[in-house]
TrEMBL record:
Assigned keywords, A-Z: Cobalt, Hydrolase, Metal-binding, Plasmid, Zinc
UniProt source species: Paracoccus liaowanqingii
Protein name per UniProt: ArgE/DapE family deacylase
InterPro entries hit by this protein: ArgE/DapE, Bact_exopeptidase_dim_dom, Peptidase_M20, Peptidase_M20_dimer, Peptidase_M20A, YodQ-like
Top-level taxon in the UniProt lineage: Bacteria
Domain Peptidase M20 dimerisation: 202-315
GO molecular function: hydrolase activity; metal ion binding
Record-stated family: Belongs to the peptidase M20A family.
Xref: Pfam families: M20_dimer (PF07687), Peptidase_M20 (PF01546)
Cofactors, names only: Co(2+); Zn(2+)
Transmembrane feature ranges: none
Amino acid sequence: MTDLHDRILAAVEAGFQAQIALTQDLIALPSRRNAEHEAQRFMAATLTARGYQIDEVATDPDAIRDHPGFSPISEHASTAPNIVATHEPRQVAGRSLILNGHVDVVPEGPHEMWSRHPYDPWRQGDWLYGRGSGDMKAGLIACVAALDALRSLGLQPAARVHIQSVVEEECTGNGALACLVAGYTAEAAIIPEPEDECLVRANCGVLWFEVAIAGQPVHVREAGTGANAIDAASRVIASLRKIEARWNAEAPQHEHFRDMAHPINFNVGQIEGGDWASTVAAWCKMQCRIAIYPGDDPAVRAAEIEGHLRQDLADDPYLSSNPPQVNWNGFFARGYVLEEGSDAEDTLRRAHLTAASAPLQSLTTPGYLDGRVFVIYGDMPCLVYGPVSEAIHGFNERVSLSSVQRVTGAIALFIAEWCGLEAVDDDQP
């Protein structure tokens, strides 16, 4: 096996420049929410060229609405399909696997605050820059490249493998859920999110909600007789900060979060309101996000937020009789804990040690991950493990290329042990 491991890692290295080029091609395709169509066509063509069977899975609200993992879909939901490519072995001798990654990216912000255009990927030293480079197009292409490396040796998995390129990961998680509901399961899953070459042990759940506040508009010369919805929004934010503090105080009750200083992060990510500089603002809307702990029921926590606002604002001169309206419009997702001791984790530990020459470390993350779909609802170990990245969701997002190579090698080694190997089917391209 040592000789085979060396050959696999050498094959990853030999194909790495082509892997970087493929990653750059994908980064160059803007794929914000509901604009992922071209990127998904690219992924479908890339996987078709390799001989995989391709399925387009729609994120159909009617198919997943009654599933306990469903998150509310807004009018902004993506209509781009999820792409699932399937490898079938000639003879099953190993264990099945899902390689999952999301193609959607978050808005890039003002382009003038980037060093270069965010969709003109560039290399500088060990870093590859561009929106989505780390989160997570490098990881998605690493899944393809790991299989390419095996094929370059005349080998392929001796088990069924699904490669999933999904949408809606940055806002609902419904893309991965739709693939699960469509019947795509396996004995383990890997998601190469940018996690510093660590394995995610526990992960927060996330709630998204809109807060709408109605004001009483008057001419600004009579401002004292009206009610400014934007001013009122500041008091709603202050109230929500109280629940953030209260939930953070619960951290000692949660094994994987008790040593984390601030696991529950509340954020107002977008705010708009008012119609005229000389008119007291008649309306204000805020798009908000807050984390919850693994084991928390999103419906219970959502009701807690609504109840808190009613109680906390009961003495507010205006909001007590004009309460803010809360609309749940995205993530309604549980967190998860990856239990220790699975064969899949042990396999990854060996693969990482060989590829990185260092023991695999675990971490807890307070952000959302699609891993919850597989762990909670698919009853399978999901190994969220990917490269070192910086400034994801920020300016000059970048991913370490040497780290990408190590992660690609680890995934290829994992496939070799978990799925087993057989000679390449001569009918494949």
